[in-house]
Design goal:
285 residues; alpha/beta; two-stranded antiparallel sheet; disordered N terminus
Length: 285
């Protein structure tokens, strides 16, 4: 009898461990984390952007860090490799990263037709599965802030910073304008439009330069910053955050804040979060 009891206990323990492991696995791809101070009084914030918003790299992601500060319920639909503009210009976007680009996310947000991203679940990685669950869970009418941080992929792919047609979504500024217009049809949230952030590069010969010098075909990083500032100035309830200037990262100190040529390390994310918190706190005064 005792042997059977021990076997039953072992089986029960094994089942419990399996359940715990399963819950931990689910938590890793959860569309959002729940923090101790979450409640009805929390401000609702959506992050839309590229890898600097999307991923943790060496610790918590930027959205996680904001949520961890308390007072904010955070939704993160940023995906690495995504851009503001429509990179795939032939037909519908094909890559998952393009489907999570600003131009496409705002289109499916306004129509509530999420089939294009839900279809990615069969081949998406854990991070993207979390984003798919999140985008379908957002009630845009209840959001207080939307943080937009695009530009790095637009820049490195050579998407024009601006063009003749103000709403041309194959340009960076055109995609921002059109997307913001769509967001403002479904949400009264304050939009925080962040500039592109600093980049540093080197060529095959070993010569070093940065984004203020390098033009991949669409302009230098300050051209993208200026384009975003112009777009923000054209809308009510849109605040421009000049992260490029305010973070004070340059060729002399970028290794302190970047893991590589453009992705934030922990210190870089903390620096960006300081800029963002300054904007948020000022808005709440």
């Amino acid at each position: 009898m005792k042997k059977w009891m021990r076997k039953d206990n072992f089986i029960s323990l094994a089942i419990m461990l399996i359940v715990i492991v399963g819950l931990l696995a689910i938590s890793q791809i959860s569309p959002r984390k729940f923090y101790p101070y979450e409640g009805d009084e929390n401000l609702q914030v959506v992050f839309m952007g590229d890898s600097n918003m999307a991923y943790a790299f060496d610790s918590d992601s930027l959205p996680d860090m904001l949520a961890g500060a308390g007072g904010y319920t955070v939704f993160n639909v940023a995906v690495g490799g995504s851009a503001a503009a429509r990179i795939n210009t032939v037909g519908n976007p094909e890559r998952g990263e393009d489907l999570f680009g600003f131009h496409h996310l705002t289109k499916i947000a306004i129509t509530q037709d999420y089939q294009s991203v839900v279809a990615l679940e069969t081949e998406a990685n854990g991070e993207m599965i979390g984003r798919i669950a999140c985008i379908t869970d957002i009630d845009w009418s209840k959001m207080d802030y939307i943080v937009l941080s695009y530009g790095l992929n637009d820049y490195t792919v050579g998407i024009p910073a601006s063009g003749e047609d103000a709403l041309d979504e194959t340009t960076y500024s055109g995609a921002l304008r059109a997307g913001i217009q769509r967001l403002q049809e479904i949400s009264d949230a304050t939009i925080i439009l962040s500039s592109i952030t600093y980049t540093a590069h080197s060529d095959e010969a070993g010569s070093a330069y940065d984004g203020y010098e390098k033009d991949f075909g669409g302009g230098t990083i300050d051209a993208y910053r200026d384009a975003a500032a112009q777009v923000a100035s054209e809308f009510e309830n849109v605040i421009f955050m000049d992260a490029l200037a305010e973070m004070e990262i340059d060729f002399t100190n970028y290794e302190t804040y970047l893991l590589d040529s453009m992705h934030f390390n922990r210190a870089g994310r903390e620096k960006y979060l300081e800029c963002l918190m300054t904007v948020l706190e000022k808005e709440q005064e």
